[in-house]
Amino acid sequence: MATALVDPKHVTMSDFKGKVDPDWCPGCGDFGVLAAVQKALVDLQIPIHEVVTISGIGCSSNFPGFINTYGMHTLHGRALAVATGVKLANHELTVLVTGGDGDGFGIGGNHFLHTMRRNVDLLYIVMDNQIYGLTTGQTSPTSRVGMKTKSMPFGNIEAPANPISLALAAGATFVARGFSGEQKHLTELIKQGIQHKGFSFLDVFSPCVTYNHDNTYQWFRPRVKKLEEDSAYDSAHWMTAMEKSLLWGDEIPIGKFFERTDLPALHEAEPVLNGSALLQQDPRIPPDIARSFVEELM
Amino acid sequence: MKQTFTIGIGGAAGQGVATPGDIFAKIFSRRGLHLNAYNAYQSIIRGGHTFLTIRTGPEKVTNMGDRIDLLIPLNQDAMNRHLKLLTRGAACIYNAETIKPGVAEEGVALCPLPVSKLADISRNKVAQNTLAVGAALSMMGIGFQALEQVLTEQFKKKGEAVVAENVGIARAGYEYASANFKPFAWPLPMANNRYAVLSGNIAMAMGGAAAGVKFYCAYPMSPSTGVLHWMASHARKAEIMVRQVEDEIGVVNMAIGASHAGVRSMCATSGGGFALMSEGLGLSAMMETPVVVIDCQRAGPSTGVPTKTEQGDLWQMLGAAFGDYPRAIAAPLDIGDCFKIIPEIFNIADRFQCPGIVLCDLLLSEGRLSVDPKDLDFAPVVDRGELITPMSPIRGSNGDGAYKRYKITDSGISPRAVPGVPGYTHTAASDEHDEDGVLISDEFTNPTKRRAMMEKRMRKVRGIEAAVPPPVLSGPRDADVTLIGWGSTKGVIEEACEILTEQGISANQLQIRWLVPLHGDAILDILKHARHTIIVENNYSGQFARYLRSETSYVPNGYIRKYDGEPFMPHHIVEAVKEQLGGASKISVPTHEILV
Fold it and tell me: N or C: which terminus of chain A carries fewer CB neighbours within 10 A?
């Protein structure tokens, strides 16, 4: 048998290793998400220069610095808007958006809503720890009622957002939930999300070991239940997904809630993109077209 | 004084003020005449009072002027508001059946049209407008053929019957006027030029297309929406992707994203939307991703007066986003310049990888001007700076794994690789970072690196200054008075200088186009020869005067300011200059006599 040659284009886990090690707290759920993303990209064999990882601000938003792809660390809550611009200008790139629950559902809520209805082809991973970590522990849009934080020391009195129901209602074409404590399962969801043509939303329970003492690994482990284990579950069925998304308690579903593949992604519907990426189009206006623009005004 | 002719058309929104305006504009520009149009209106779709002034003449017309030669009131309200503005030699054409004239000054010709006798008003609701246009052209000494041609073009989509009906009504008005009204003393001349007539918003949109913009996004906001409308309606032909976004925060960040991926991106808004964008400008500066933002100023603060002009956003531009960063701010001088300035500021933004701001205002954005088509150059110089794309033949000097996105250089400019190029992966960061793009904001803060990065970025300021020409003085060096303005006031100050000179007061003008970089030394050099300096601007506090003082310690002799929402007319400036030279005051705030 001939010696197996190493394909120079073959990408490995070490290719995706960032320039610096993550500075997350030991035990942070985000480590698991980072590893799962790297593993998914290796499994899919996507070259590092064809991936752009874009984040906002927060603990989890430091993510792009810890993975070797093209990266953007943008403003708090604005990653989806920036990512939409990147994807539309060069739709050949694989665009990953990574951030936290405060970034995405709080300050960035408006962009979250509109990016979903636009069906921008990207994977949005929210490392949902139900707390503001980098600002040292305040209530987040997904904090549960009664949870005591530095900003609500007598307990949260506001109902939490339900990201899965929100995404379904807003028209996201791929909606899933993972758990940082379920690596293999999470990696599979990331792969599916990347491969899905359109907006993929992946909410990941990523426990904050420093500030959230309610929703810990121990709290989640007995409760999470994989949708994939129920052979009767049909992720093409929106109403069923909506019903499942409302479950919260002794049983919390994780896995792919919903996917539809019949709608075009934004760049596929965009009339000026007929084949080639915007970046590759000649930006010059041909003289006859330019003349016609001026003639209209005469 | 230059010979011009001004028509004022007033009525309620929805009464069809714009159509006669368009017809006159077409006829004048096809006669080879210059024109300037300004529409005073309100934030209302039906009702209110709209007053359109169109000024034309054989020489360049840069502003609405001081005089109305022909008033066409489409309702009683317009008659009541404006008849008193007319002076000897002027005329007023109106519907005799629905409008009563007031008392006109001596020498003003009242020209009543018996509308229902000349046209079937049950069939055509805007018959009075068309009759008035016909009558006006007869009095101006313009042959009917010109009007017939424009009406035919205008209505041809609606079929021959509609064309015939409208041409018939116009002819009735024309013939009635020829038989009953005295022609104007100055028949409009003809010249062998052909001009394009366009608004500043169209000019900026086309300037963007010429500059190679591939991505344009916006949230609708008066008075900037015209840029979006041109972009959207020409997107396919120009191959520009145009997106309407959920808010201006999304707009600026989406534009930055597209730019980061390698295409030229632009967006436009007004003061309120710009306020939402300001954090994004900081992002552009910090990530060193260029973006061009147009701000069409309207009267503020808050939502202010959406349909009125002001130069009140200067300090917002100067202070937009926290921290120090290089930026370029340019204020176009007229509608033609709205076109030219866009490719210029893109070259600056691209070369220096920083935000470029175009500080326009409603006066230019929504006003219209005749522009020589030669001045609309769709093949301007394009300089994308040190940009590495998947298509660039030469990949910059520091590739092959050693690439540092924020490499410290003498110029402060680091070669910019866009995503998708093998061998150049990096993170562009909003937090402070080192040469490699690694954050130095959290665990790794480092005062030495922070200082080095700050100085690297700020070194670009020197380069921008060298790339942008200093302002120049126009007019005689030893003039009695020097008028200093910025942006859109160029035309009206120019005309005020001409009038002053004719009246024995020699005047020159320093008009500022680039606000950042300002070239303070060059300005001081010019002003040290000035005898009496007055800063003219469309705002309350003298925003430019305060800026000039902060940058140069220069204090002028006086100020002329206007903040009533309406633009300057030449006589406002002339009278204020005389008042100030006589020592009566140092600050003049002219009163706008047209009630709009």
Answer: N
